[in-house]
Amino acid sequence: MPLAAPMNPPRILDGKALAATVLEASRAEAAALHARGITPGLAVVLVGEDPASQVYVGSKARTCAELGFYSRKIELPASTTQDELLDVVRGLNADPAIHGILVQSPPPKHIDEAAIIRAIDPRKDVDGFHPENVAKLVLEDPSGFVPCTPAGCIMLLDSAGIATAGAEAVIIGRSMIVGKPLALLLMSKHSNATVTVAHSRSRDLPAICRRADILIAAVGRPEMVRADWIKPGAVVIDVGINRVADPTKKSGYRLTGDVAYQEVITPVPGGVGPMTIAMLMRNTLQAARQLGE
Amino acid sequence: MPLAAPMNPPRILDGKALAATVLEASRAEAAALHARGITPGLAVVLVGEDPASQVYVGSKARTCAELGFYSRKIELPASTTQDELLDVVRGLNADPAIHGILVQSPPPKHIDEAAIIRAIDPRKDVDGFHPENVAKLVLEDPSGFVPCTPAGCIMLLDSAGIATAGAEAVIIGRSMIVGKPLALLLMSKHSNATVTVAHSRSRDLPAICRRADILIAAVGRPEMVRADWIKPGAVVIDVGINRVADPTKKSGYRLTGDVAYQEVITPVPGGVGPMTIAMLMRNTLQAARQLGE
Fold first, then answer.
1. Of A42, A97, B52, B290, which residue is 20 to 30 A from B198 by alpha carbon distance?
2. Cα–Cα distance between B99 and B286 in angstroms, integer?
3. Mind telling me the catalytic residues of A?
4. Per-residue pLDDT tens over the stretch A146-156
5. Could you give the CA distance from residue A272 to residue A151 in angstroms, rounded to a whole number?
6. What is the pLDDT of residues B257-289, one digit of tens each?
7. How far is B165 from chain A (nearest CA, A)?
8. Which of A152, A232, A142, A143 is nearest to A189 (CA)?
9. Helix A179-187 / helix B179-187 crossing angle, nearest 10 deg
10. How far A132 CA sits from the closest chain B CA (Å)?
11. A86 burial via Cβ count (<10 Å: 0-12, 13-18, 19+)
């Protein structure tokens, strides 16, 4: 039930718990598709040996296995050419066992990532980065794929009953992957928020943040947003996930968000991160449904 | 030269004068293209007999003639079917004399306008409404066509030397034609403004407007924005063009904008309107250049 205003003290929007619920529902939906002879299939392409990318790709494959999806991990050497990668994408476009295609970002520098994304069949573009899906987001056409992290943020707000209509939402960051799509979603007829997009060139960022009923930090700077930037009772979603040196940890680092606020409403880790992968599974199901029809 | 802050009292951003300058430059560029054997060509398709649409279409054809462009006006009866209209568009896509295609909005109700727009060759989509051009706007890819009214607003700001970087821009209205594309342009690396999009569901619109250094009204409600909604020294662009009954006029109506402020910086009529048609001519030139290469 939507609340008239966010409550004080801030509740935790538990991304881990919500992601688990979404994954459970996805497992059930996959089973229903199996009964119709369809196994949702996700192909993840990794070019080069970036360790962080390998972790992400591994966790996507593991989640697929848990949900009864078919998954294919395609690991290519860093020396792969643009044409070779395009051939791999075209092969996946034509493969009826594959409903979703994801090329792990960032590829090596000699790869033209935009051209690779344009080569993905938009009906299999579960990342939502293909121009056709970007346009559908602007046009509020629900047949498109919404990028996973912004979609996860909207679901966190919706499922917690946060009233977005007429609320002041401030997004810090104007990236193609989070800031811009999230702004479009929050200003859409689904959410009806008054949306401000702030960024590195904004003047007096603390004052802009303090007017937010809903504050979303997606800027990638550890603990940049301070406690006194946050209006009491505001809902804060921390999309940032930054590595900060920490000699007390065995790994030598800890993960921290963009927000230093102690009662931040989505914890890092365990907030938006798990939602992103859950949304990827949902998008793959949507692709399997739409292509299976 | 960019100013540190907008000056007070507000200057008039004279859309009529700037549009005349743009048209003069376009005439010269068309002459240069003639010398290379290219005549920029614009096709305007009008379905049905809407009187306002007939006025717009006539003025586009007249401007083409003044600039040495080839123009073709295609007037179809209101009974034209979707398939017949698609055939007309496909014919124009294939026609080498035509570089820009515009289907005057709104078409009759039985026409699926989105499908018609998708059928236009994106390289000839001088309105900038094709999904491929919408995506290029989001992705900040300058090879796309920018919708004419938002492009005109940006040029008005730029040519007056208004410093947009870090400024608070507030846009009232979230339409596909003005509000959303203008928001994307103002938050882009070209303009670097802090952008707020407000709309019918926003709470306390006057307070939101009062924080604007640059206020853009694109809502279509006559004189909704009042003088006391405007921060002293703010730059105000009035995109609205509304007919209001006025018995003192021979026509029985007068044209008014969305802003009641007496010193509004773009007058209605004579502000954004002339810029829109000038931007259409620029887009047609861009299409002729890109297709002629």
1. B52
2. 9
3. 60, 104, 127
4. 999 999 999 99
5. 10
6. 899 876 557 777 778 999 999 999 999 999 999
7. 7
8. A142
9. 150
10. 6
11. middle
- Copy the structure tokens of residue A141: 């056409």
pLDDT at A293: 66
Q: What is the pLDDT of residues B215-236, one digit of tens each?
A: 999 999 999 999 999 998 899 9
- Active-site positions of B read 60, 104, 127
Can you give the pLDDT at residue A52? 86
Mean pLDDT score of chain B, rounded to an integer? 92
Residues of B contacting chain A (CB within 8 angstroms): 114, 131-132, 134-139, 165-168, 174, 176, 180, 183-184, 187, 192, 194-199, 201-203, 208
Cβ atoms of residues B175 and B167 within 8 Å: no
Burial class (CB within 10 angstroms; exposed 0-12, middle 13-18, buried 19+) of B289: middle
pLDDT at A140: 93
- Strands A242-245 and A41-47: what pairing? unpaired
How many CB atoms sit inside 10 A of residue A81's CB?
11
Tokens of B118: 């998708």
b/e for A134-143, b at 16 or more Cβ within 10 A?
A: bbbbbbbeee
CA distance A63 to chain B (A): 30
Q: Min CA distance, A20 vs chain B (Å)?
A: 32
Contact call for A180 and B184, based on CB within 8 A: yes
Q: In the prediction, which pLDDT does B265 show?
A: 75
| Cβ(B212)–Cβ(B229) below 8 Å | no
Nearest to B138 among A138, A166, A208 (CB): A138
Q: Are strands B168-172 and A235-238 parallel, antiparallel or unpaired?
A: unpaired
- pLDDT of B163 > 90? The answer is yes
**Residues of B in Cβ contact (< 8 Å) with A203:** 166-168, 194
- Reading the block at residue B119, the tokens are 């059928």
Q: CA nearest B105: which of B136, B128, B83?
A: B128
Share of residues in chain A with pLDDT > 70 (%): 95
What pairing do the DSSP bridges indicate for beta strands A168-172 and A194-198? Answer: parallel
Residue B217, phi then psi, degrees to nearest 5: -100, 120
Strand ranges across the sheet with A194-198: A235-238, A214-217, A168-172, A194-198, B194-198, B168-172, B214-217, B235-238
- CB count, 10 Å around CB of B10? 18
Write out the H or E segment, with its range, that includes residue A29.
helix A15-35
Please confirm whether the linkage preceding B9 is cis (ω < 30° from 0).
yes
Continuous H helices in A99-216: 113-119, 131-138, 148-159, 179-187, 205-210
CB pair distance less than 8 Å for A195 and B196: yes
**Helix and strand tally (H, E) in chain B?**
9, 9
Phi, psi of A101 (to 5 degrees): -125, 130
Cβ atoms of residues B237 and B214 within 8 Å: yes
On chain A, the residues whose CB falls within 8 A of the CB of B144 are none
Which residues in A lie closer than 8 A to residue B194 (C-beta atoms)?
196-199, 201-203, 208
Q: Terminal CA-to-CA distance of chain A, rounded, Å? A: 34
Residue B58 has pLDDT above 60, yes or no: yes
